């Protein structure tokens, strides 16, 4: 009569316990026994003895909960908490009940969907996704694949200018052009088209003509960005006629094989001025670094499955079509610019898992959780080594790696920090204000932009809600970069920090979506309303 029948699918003992404490009765599924056995999997609760975990999952010493569950076995639940919407009986969704998922959220909870939705953001509101989302392309779409190829080439040209300036700081500059006779000892575009055709050693110098080409490419691109090319009747000859295969092979020699660059003082000034002007037009110029690293991801996978880092254009295009990892359909890959200039802690890469809840889509209503946690990699950060242990912070990836001997001992052994620990670290850096003045506002803005960009695609259902987990990287300037949004963030703790925070966010979510209906002034824990349309 009070409409307090609930159903839980998946490893959520906290939800079950909290609802029972509120006087709710569980309608159990026939497979519930098997689910309880899965709950006892030490991978889910590695710190918890089996008998304690069983008590946590099914606290029913007198059998009263099992009896009540039997009595309501034929009643439809009023509240459903499940791993995925697809796992719920469609008949149940037609009733007047509360479900912890919305339909068609893949418009922003898959890598492919988020990439497409944020491309449309400038048409929806005055916001530039390039200020918070590393540029991303769907390789299965021909136009986007061609746009990526052009982006990769332009980024290589910009990176070459950065490398030239970096090397210029290490040795004196030439005051004049290198004579043609000297160029023959290194690189000359008239007779070198690929490293294997060159007699030069990998470390031999590459001379001013390569820098000159990069300068010209970047000048033409800057003109396009400034809309100064609108009166031209033909495309820029530098953008269309350059031998890009040869240019990229020479760039690879400089960026990845140790070949030196030689440039004049005039070129040094041109590089400095041009990069300064490009920074005014390209919000991602600083974070993109100088090695042109990109990250290739299956468009609809999660937990780090199938993700590959690479620095070669040919590898990206080959992997996009031939790699069968994780049974992903060929062509459903996205490629995204890797954030090279990122903040590390004790020389180690980390990311932030940030929760938020949507309780309504019409009007859009968003609640931001004020506690979050950091996830560390198992090995020191290095762009010279692109293995997963250094670059993918997912717990599901890192649990397979032991901490390397060269890891800083101050990195937590369980590879998890709370946001409070991170704030203490920032204070030690003299950046105590960065959390509240830069990081939190940036994460809130990115989440809202992502939701608004996909709002028309989501199938709205009144009375339901959904808890999401957004993943962010932090740039050297403390700016957060949104990587992805997860529709079913894990609540299986992997550390003491996540054991506490995951339990808290589940309790506070129930306060938000259930208790607040009867008592609008009740405590909602760490949730903060950040947007109501």
Automatic annotation (TrEMBL):
Keywords: ATP-binding, Cell projection, Cilium, Cytoplasm, Cytoskeleton, Flagellum, Ligase, Nucleotide-binding. It is found in: Cytoplasm, Cytoskeleton, Flagellum axoneme. The keyword Ligase applies. It comes from the Eukaryota. It holds the Pfam family TTL. GO terms for molecular function: ATP binding; protein-glycine ligase activity, initiating. GO terms for biological process: cilium assembly; cilium movement. It catalyses: L-glutamyl-[protein] + glycine + ATP = glycyl-L-glutamyl-[protein] + ADP + phosphate + H(+). Residues 186-197 have a biased composition (Basic residues). Residues 171-203 are annotated as: Disordered. GO terms for cellular component: axoneme; microtubule cytoskeleton. The keyword Ligase applies. Its main location: cytoplasm. This is TTLL3 monoglycylase.
């Amino acid at each position: 009569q009070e409409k307090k029948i609930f159903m839980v699918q998946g490893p959520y003992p906290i939800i079950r316990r909290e609802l029972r404490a509120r006087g709710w009765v569980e309608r159990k599924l026939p497979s519930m026994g098997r689910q309880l056995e899965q709950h006892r999997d030490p991978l889910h609760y590695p710190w918890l003895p089996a008998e304690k975990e069983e008590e946590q999952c099914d606290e029913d010493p007198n059998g009263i909960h099992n009896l009540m569950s039997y009595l309501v076995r034929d009643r439809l639940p009023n509240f459903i908490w499940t791993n995925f919407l697809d796992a719920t009986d469609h008949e149940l969704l037609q009733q007047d009940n509360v479900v912890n998922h919305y339909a068609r959220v893949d418009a922003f909870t898959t890598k492919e969907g988020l990439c497409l939705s944020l491309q449309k953001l400038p048409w929806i509101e005055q916001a530039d996704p390039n200020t918070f989302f590393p540029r991303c392309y769907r390789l299965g779409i021909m136009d986007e694949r061609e746009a990526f190829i052009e982006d990769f080439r332009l980024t290589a040209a910009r990176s070459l200018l950065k490398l030239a300036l970096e090397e210029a700081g290490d040795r004196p500059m030439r005051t004049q052009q290198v004579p043609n006779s000297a160029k023959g000892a290194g690189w000359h575009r008239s007779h070198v088209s690929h490293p294997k055709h060159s007699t030069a050693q990998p470390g031999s110098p590459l001379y001013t003509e390569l820098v000159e080409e990069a300068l010209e490419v970047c000048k033409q691109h800057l003109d396009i960005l400034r809309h100064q090319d609108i009166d031209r009747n033909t495309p820029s000859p530098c953008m269309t006629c350059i031998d890009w295969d040869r240019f990229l092979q020479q760039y690879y020699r400089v960026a990845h094989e140790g070949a030196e660059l030689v440039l004049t003082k005039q070129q040094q000034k041109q590089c400095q001025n041009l990069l300064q002007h490009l920074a005014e037009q390209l919000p991602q110029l600083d974070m993109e670094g100088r090695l042109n690293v990109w990250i290739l991801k299956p468009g609809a996978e999660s937990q780090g499955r199938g993700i590959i880092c690479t620095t070669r254009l040919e590898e990206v295009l080959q992997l996009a079509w031939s790699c069968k990892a994780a049974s992903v359909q060929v062509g459903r890959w996205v490629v995204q610019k890797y954030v090279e200039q990122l903040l590390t802690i004790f020389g180690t890469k980390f990311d932030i898992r940030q929760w938020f809840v949507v309780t309504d889509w019409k009007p859009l209503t968003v609640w931001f959780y004020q506690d979050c946690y950091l996830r560390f990699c198992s090995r020191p950060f290095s762009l010279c080594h692109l293995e997963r242990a250094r670059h993918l912070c997912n717990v599901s990836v890192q649990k397979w790696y032991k901490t390397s001997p060269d890891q800083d001992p101050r990195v937590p052994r369980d590879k998890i920090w709370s946001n409070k620990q991170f704030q203490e670290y920032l204070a030690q850096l003299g950046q105590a204000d960065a959390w509240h003045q830069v990081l939190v506002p940036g994460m809130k803005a990115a989440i809202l932009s992502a939701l608004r960009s996909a709002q028309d695609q989501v199938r709205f259902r009144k009375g339901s809600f959904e808890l999401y987990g957004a993943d962010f990287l932090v740039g050297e300037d403390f700016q957060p970069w949104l990587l992805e949004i997860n529709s079913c963030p894990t609540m299986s703790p992997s550390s003491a920090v996540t054991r506490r925070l995951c339990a808290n966010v589940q309790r506070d979510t129930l306060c938000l979506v259930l208790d607040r209906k009867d008592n609008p002034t009740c405590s909602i824990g760490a949730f903060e309303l950040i947007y109501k349309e």
